[in-house]
Amino acid sequence: MSDPTTAARGIRQRNLSRLLRMLHLDGPQSRARLTELTGLNRSTIADLVGELTRAGLALEKAPDPSRRVGRPSPVVTVDPRVLAIAVNPEVDALTIAAIGLDRGIPVRERLELDHLLTPEETADLVAERLADWRSGALAEARLVGIGVAVPGLVRTADGIVRDAPHLHWTDAPLRDLLTTATGLPVSVGNDASLGVMAEHLFGAGRGIDDIVYLNGGASGIGGGLVVGGMPVAGAGGYAGEFGQNRPGIAADSDRRASGGVLEDEVSRSRLLRVAGLDSADEPTLAAALAGSDDAAVTEELARQRGILSTALANAVNVLNPTLVVLGGFLATIADSDAAGLLDAVGAQAMSANMEGLHIRVASLAEDRLLIGAAEAAFAELLNDPTGPDR
């Protein structure tokens, strides 16, 4: 026979989780609206909101004074001081940010590098920046954890980076290194898998249940999948490595890397080269390419767009998504001729699979990987807001 007290505690935990998740995903809500959305009665909502407030996770604000009809209902919001630290190591920079449970970003830094980071250096730099922020911008913050978006294969069970080839990391215990350096719980995931999570929850893929996401960064091309509303990670967490597929290239004159994979041909470094840049963040590269009248830039964008269209057609044929989302430099390639890219994909994919298909750029732009990393760090809190570790 089940223990009624234990069962009641489980129901309460699920209701607290549901309420906090709604506030996190959809923003501030009146108590009346929360009552309507959950189907719980007003006194239960008041009790749950009170517990979240006492736990330092939610705030109540005065009702909207413009509302003239009926009893005013307080507005409930997550406490913006509840934050996760998001980290994205790349071959040319380490980006670190504090992301709020309210999705605010009070601090964000990109540390430019002239060498490849080691896992140990990554942990040390994060700990150093975190110590500085805690004595300044984040002095009032409640930090719940760290999420890391890594351009490589991450074993989800233990946070081991099995292979980040461009960083030259193999079997790196990144989760343990960061936990030791900072004292915070750490979640490590593939950057593109975290990127698709962010775009699905908050960005271009919000409300869409079948998504193919390709991310283009300094370390190449990764991918993430949402099928039937659920993220697809694969048996070990390694699904979505579109960049390692062999591209179909019709004309030998369009090939730049003999026997190369997709990310050797559709390449950020090649775009930097034709733009005359040694390095750049995403907005700077996009602006340089868009503002150029150099024929070499136009030709390289067209070449990469053509090869990308074949890769996307293959993904559309296999997965039949509603939406393809492109992030990073792939978004720049798409924006250079969005209609042409869609037409090129349609010319190579099965016509039935193209019905209703949309191709969009990542609307969270350069913050998408950081927001996804923060979601991973918030996961435990959202599942059990007032658990024993809180």
TrEMBL record:
Signal peptide: none
Keyword line: Kinase, Transferase
InterPro entries: ATPase_NBD, ROK, WH-like_DNA-bd_sf, WH_DNA-bd_sf
Pfam families assigned: ROK
Molecular functions (GO terms): kinase activity
Regions that span the bilayer: none
UniProt similarity note: Belongs to the ROK (NagC/XylR) family.
Protein name as catalogued: Sugar kinase of the NBD/HSP70 family, may contain an N-terminal HTH domain
